[in-house]
Amino acid sequence: MVKRVLTIGLLLSAISEVQASDTLRTSLEDIISKALLNSKQIETSYLRIEESKLAIQQQRMELLPEISLHGAASYATNMPVYDHGLFNKPSQHDVIHYLYDTGIDFYLNLYNGHKDLMKIESRKLEQELASIAWANDKARIKLDVCNLFLDLERSYMDKTLIESDIVDQKAQLKEIKNLYTSGVLLHSDVLRMELELSKRELLLVQIDHDIQAFNQRLNFIIGGDATIVPIPHDFMVRVESYDESWAFAKHHAFVLQQSEQEVKIKQLAIKQSKANYLPELGIAGNFTFANPQIFLYPYNDSWYNLGIVGLKLKVPISAVYRNKNLVRVAKVALDREEVKHHLEEEHMQRQLLQAHLDYKLACVQRDVCLKNVGLAKENARIIKNRYFKASALVTDLLDADMEHLKTLFELETAKIAIQKHYYFIEFLKGTI
């Protein structure tokens, strides 16, 4: 008997653990942390940063001297000399048939208009651009998770409200049925109440569907499969004024940071195109170990080695006319990027201003909804008393109940809207 009790206890404990694992009660911060760890977009952005770091290292390697080995083995045929004309028998000139050539070539750039250094600087700007894109992707994931989490939280609030209202409506319907049985009310009143109750139950089904949909989307982002239940939290924050937000966003908004980096890249491109006019100077060297010796006269078939080191200067005269349009193209590209940057600033200003206006509107709506809830509740109480005293119609009772429920939904929607607008403002500022 004791073994059976212990076995049953263990089974019940295992079942409760499985049920608990299927439900995940979590906060917004925990969901965001899991989303950041699971996001493939963020991983892609991070790998792009690593790629840019390696590109910088590779570009620095280009500053090192170029060293190469070469080797060749050849066979030369006899060389007939037609000293009496093409149609006469030629004489044979003695040649060395086997030729060998090995050696090392060396080149170290001393000056080329700082092209190599500007390439390194360009790679650094690309790395900075990749870092900004990585931060922007993280912020976008956070914003998406916040919106989904808040929608899920609102759905659970709506579910609680509608379930409570269904309980009240069922109790009211029971009371109305008792009065109908007593002959006080009409059958049509009972039918209308049952119809309204059925509509509420259908609304509950829709809310459950919304909860399931939001759960699926969140689980896809965080890589889980549990039913997520948001932990209620108090939202007490202070939103800066529009002027303060814009002053901060001008230097920290991800879109504007990306645009600024693009402008810097275009400015550097002008310097790179102008560097094509400048001469190139380097140290060139060659060490040869070869056979036969045909470098100096008289020739011989002995092995020899020879080293040559010197300066190599290249003056690109053709760049005067071939590079002119490249500089112009780079300047036009810079002008276009600067105009684009100003457009991004204007667009950011409009978005930020609209977000602040929407936030203020949501705060006003919340205050009005708080007032409306009290008014609707009192109105529903009065209509209910009048109905059961036979001084009000059933339609008045149903309208009053529905208006009260509607004000409760509107209040929760306004509270969630405030939080959504706040997080969107933080996203635009680059501080989410």
Automatic annotation (TrEMBL):
The lineage of its organism: Bacteria, Pseudomonadati, Bacteroidota, Sphingobacteriia, Sphingobacteriales. This is TolC family protein. It is found in: Cell outer membrane. Keywords: Cell outer membrane, Membrane, Transmembrane, Transmembrane beta strand. InterPro entries: TolC-like. It comes from Sphingobacterium anhuiense. The keyword Cytoplasm does not apply. It comes from the Bacteria.
